[in-house]
Amino acid sequence: MHELTIAGDILEIVLQEAKQNDLHKIVEVELEVGKLSGVDVEALEFAFKMIIKETLAENAVISIHNTNGIGECKSCRKEFEMEDLLSVCPICKQLPDSITRGKELKVLSIAAE
Amino acid sequence: MCETCGCGQPGEYTIKAPAKKTDYQQLVPALDQPQRKVITIEKDILSENNAIAQNNRSFFQSRNIACINLVSSPGSGKTSLLEKTIVELKSSISMFAIEGDQQSSLDADRIMNAGAPVVQINTNSGCHLDARMIQKTLENFKINDNSVLFIENVGNLVCPALFDLGEQERVLIMSVTEGEDKPLKYPAMFQSAHVCLINKIDLLPYLDFDIEKAISNARFINPELEIMLVSVKTGEGMESWYNWCRSISR
Predict the structure, then answer these.
(1) What is the mean pLDDT of each run of 10 residues along chain A (113 residues)?
(2) A50, A59, B1, B149: which has the highest count of C-beta atoms within 10 A?
(3) A112 vs B36: CB contact, 8 Å cut-off?
(4) CA-CA distance, B155 to B99, in Å (whole number)?
């Protein structure tokens, strides 16, 4: 699954920041994974736990903010919350014209000791 | 009053027994506890892939190479479509191909026999191509200016949706044997595509496939999608596809 690729990309960012800041032990990695990003949180956690072995993030806790999506209805122009890509405007029953939140895939911060 | 130097007042001091345990932890910072340092990063995880994809895109644009990312479930007909397209159009359009599969060069062999220069990427256990793989391939795969490059992605409607390769167009192929609800099951991929080919229409008499429903589901998910009904096997509907290829090759 692509969560393994994503976990690898996260680890690369973490190790790069660790090197730049001269950190030796990463204890927490904080992520934002939007509900509309196409990434499964459980699969990502599993993949991440596997690949951090024998790195300086070996025992890091992974904290994930699994943010809701927000879309703008193409008809009434109102914003509505989206749990997934098939969520429709509660009034007009239409898919959004644009999605302003929920597709994020970010490393927010790392904590080191 | 102190009898030595005269300071203080009579009766000012008190005498008491020492505390059972002095809580030095409160007096001195916890030197044996590790200091925790938090670094704010706020970095997009796919930023590196997207940056490489943009480089790929700039490269293609500077050379007038129309790059097409072909995506589908396994078995929808990507390779057959490419084979037939190459045979039909090679006399008028310069075409190249990059094939993506977990293993084997079977697809690349077919494209080579059809008459286009081709390279095979084997991802081994990977389920999608990414921008770095394309960039690496382009280092040694010479593609002519003013040509069309078809990238046939790994057969998978899930993971390739996340990975921009630097393509100009994303063409999604689904076949009538996959069910008219396909767009609803894979909205991310259908939303990211520009063109959708519904293939194997020669099989319609033998199936309960509701083609109107398939089209309306696809349009519901992506109103901008250009939809073509084709049979690679019989050639029905393929002229629209060939015309589309001609238009993007200019």
Answers:
(1) 89 94 94 95 94 93 95 93 94 92 96 93
(2) B149
(3) yes
(4) 11
